[in-house]
Write a structure and sequence with these properties.
Blueprint lengths: L15 E4 L5 E4 L2 E2 L5 H12 L5 E2 H9 L7 H16 L12 E4 L2 E4 L5 E3 H17 L3 H12 L13 H27 L3 H14 L4 H13 L3 H19 L5 H12 L31 E2 L12 H8 L12 E6 L6 H12 L6 E6 L11 H11 L11 H12 L5 E5 L4 H4 L10 E6 L4 H7 L2 E4 L5 H12 L1 H6 L1 H10 L4 H13 L5 H10 L16 H10 L3 H10 L7 E2 H8 L3 H13 L4 E4 L2 E3 L2 H14 L2 H26 L23 H10 L1 H13 L3 H17 L3 H17 L3 H17 L3 H18 L2 H17 L3 H17 L3 H18 L2 H18 L2 H17 L3 H18 L2 H17 L3 H17 L5 H14 L1
Parallel strand pairs: 1-7, 8-10, 9-12, 9-13, 10-11, 11-12
Antiparallel strand pairs: 1-2, 2-3, 4-6, 5-6, 14-16, 15-16
Amino acid sequence: MEAFDPAAGHPPLQPLRFSVLGPLRAWLGDTELALGSPQQRAVLALLLLRRGRAVSLDDLVDGVWDDDPPPGAVPVLRTYVSRLRRLLEPDRAPGRPSRTVVSLGDGYALGGRDTVASDLDRFEDQVHRAGLRQAAGDHRTAAQLLRAALDLWRGTPLAGVPGPYARSERTRLEARHLHVQEAWLRAELALGRHSAVLPDLVALRDAHPLREDVCELLMLALYRCERQAEALEVYATARRTLVEELGVEPGPSLRALHARVLAGDPATDDLPATDGPPADGEPTDPAPRTPVVYTSQLPADLPTFTGRRAELDRVARLLPAEGCPDTAVVALVDGMAGAGKTTLAVHWAHRVAHRFPDGSLFVNLRGHDREGSLDPADALTVFLVALGTAPDSIPDGLDARAALYRSVLADRRVLIVLDNGRDADQVRPLLPGTAGCLTIVTSRNRLSGLVVGQGAHPFTLGLPTAAEAREMLTRRLGAARVEAEPEAADDIVGLCARLPLTLAVVAARAAHHPEFRLTDIAGELRESHGSLDAFTGGEVGTDVRAVFSWSYRALPEESAGLFRVLSLHPGPDIGTAAASALAGVPRSRARALLAGLTGASLLTERAPGRFVFHDLLRAYAAEIAAAEDTGDRRRQALLRMHDHYLHTAHHAASALDPLRRMLPPPGATTDSAALRFNDRKNATAWLRTERYVLRAVVEHAAAHGFHDHAWRTAYALDVYFNRLGFWQDLKEINTVALEAARAVGDLTGEAYSLCGLGFAHAQLHHVGEALASQERALELFEKSGDLLGQAHTRRALGYRANRTGAYGVALGHYDRARELYRAGHDPGGEASVLNQVAWTYILMGEHDRALERCERGIALYHEIGEAYGEASTRDTLGYALHQLGRYEAAVGCFEASAALFREIGDRYLEADVLRHLGASCRALGDLGAARAAWRGALALLEEVAHPEADDMRASLRALDAGG
């Protein structure tokens, strides 16, 4: 049995930028965010400053409120976390887990580190680099880096953020700031800039009169400016302050400096006393060198380049603010075909080329060309000749050429672009061996060997944002043309799937035909949607189908086979287990093949274990699947896939509700690698992750002749979709299931589909449709003699009758359902009916009778050991007690029920109980506890994207307004 790793697919995260070196601020892209209440800011600050490490709920409570947390602090924290998730990740699909504020254990962590930046990270990076330069004797660069770090500060760190953690961090950061100020001043003094920093030193001494290090620096600066008397006065003032304030004498270092100044010791006069040229022996910048041969091989920058601001900012951080790097920097840009890797690399290279005085080199390694890739030995020959080596002096053999190449570059600072690399072995000989050079490598493959062996900095280039893609179109067609048809322009961006290559092809067609309306071009794309026919640019390099084929043809056969069958999958993304079923390979092998496709940029791993196609790559994969795989082979793959989802959904439903009658699916005819689940939490996690996939799978099964799979999978999903309030989903999948069952004359499937459809209609207040569906289902179950099917339908009819106020009719249905459950030897079903009868009595105002039914139901659930039913019935018991005015007893029942649902992992029903708990607390006059319970309920409802979240917000507003 294999454990399931819950994860969900996500769109690419937008870059987040935070500022903590002043008031806490945040930006999503270029938009500043309103961070909410002070306590919510405190939660964000704690998560941010823990730098991706998990923060437990206890630490969050202590960090925000210390020893005086409010009642229900944990639900309040969950509310803050829920709001932060919506704020920081507004594009997250409903029901998908957050990648920005991630749940870890019993706490949270700030995720998405590749897209999160802060001024504190920049500050520490600059300080670290300054330390390296200081240790190397390069005081000038160190001083520049430290000054740049200090310029990031905008006032008191975390200003306005409350709580003990913020106070502690504020103190720590202010001490860090002071330490870096001192380091910068030391670096400036080492450069002989004594008089220039005197105003800063005086201000710092006045702000920190007890800081002996600052007093030492001020004394030294004054002495070296030939102001000995003032230097001695600084010591006298410092000594007087220390004695009066702390009752101590100055430390030995300050006393020793005082003695040297007093004696005019030459040891204090090693460096120049006034600003001016560095003294002999001080590190100086090397004189500019004239290279033997200056080479400039960069291709022209694209005149219409636009966007990619976040990516350019990220790669820019690899280089110092000015000049060449002090190490050999290798930037590795990978991504799918057509994403614009070369365009980005060339644009960035042009932006920084002036920093490399010995020129630039460029080579297309042709890693995915049909004619084969460039031999690295040949590339070295081209480079060596460009660098001034005589052709007859170039040795034979790759190793000898690589050694000569490194020797030629040893004293040079060169920018190198290695475009379209095939693998690490092709690229590695072309890397320089000494500091001062920048190498930019592009590849469709993830060249992990360069990251591990050469310390390359990897960057995966995703799609541009919708706004950037529209800007690309505007730059190519002109603002007037795009602004004249803005909706058509947006359609073109969407139909091109934001891929830069396809946008360029379509824009070229539009530019060649200025008389064409963009609306007509969008219409052409819409007609050919699902194929690549519209994206042929007339040349091999601009034919999208040909460009994709170069990556596909380089795949091993097994990987190519998986690439093709993945196009058959109907969902928005796919997990490893389903991919293994489609391919008919063991799960461990599927993982390796998926990693290969991801490494080749033919597939994207959106979240751990969740993979997604780019729309155009899916279309390409479908084309070659139809061309290269027989119809029988494709159908066998689909059968394995539908077997996998049906049997896994069955196992999940069994774990979610062990007492519910399950219809065992027919034995799988394939090795479908179905998942099994140890508990409700894992089952719920899988169902939550696969929600949108499962809807698509049911529809696909019905549309492609897998009718039995369609209605049985829909039946297995009833429990989950109902409990989470996904009633529209429930209606849609059962509508499809009903058509599938009727298509093959399956009366059992028709009956169960009608029952599920009727329940969905009842929840959506479609009274007529609900009654018609349920009565037809009952008729079919009676005709077939299915006792438990009849009981299940009677319960559904009773529920519908309660919704319409026909309580007597409901009790009749429930009585008959109990008889049927007894006849079918189903004690769990009987106990659930007792709970529903109790609820009917509550609706009728007969609360004492409801208490009696609840107690009988709880006893029966105890007897069979069913925690879920007990939790549900304790909730009903609490509600009856509340109606009788026994609020304290009701609170106890609700708390017990909520604890059980929390342990089970049913977030929706936990939220429902917390709503009832809040009402009882409010009736007791404990408004703080009521507010905490309702906020906790709201956080849970928002987490599962439940439609009842709006009602909960309204209740909270009413509570805040009227108490």
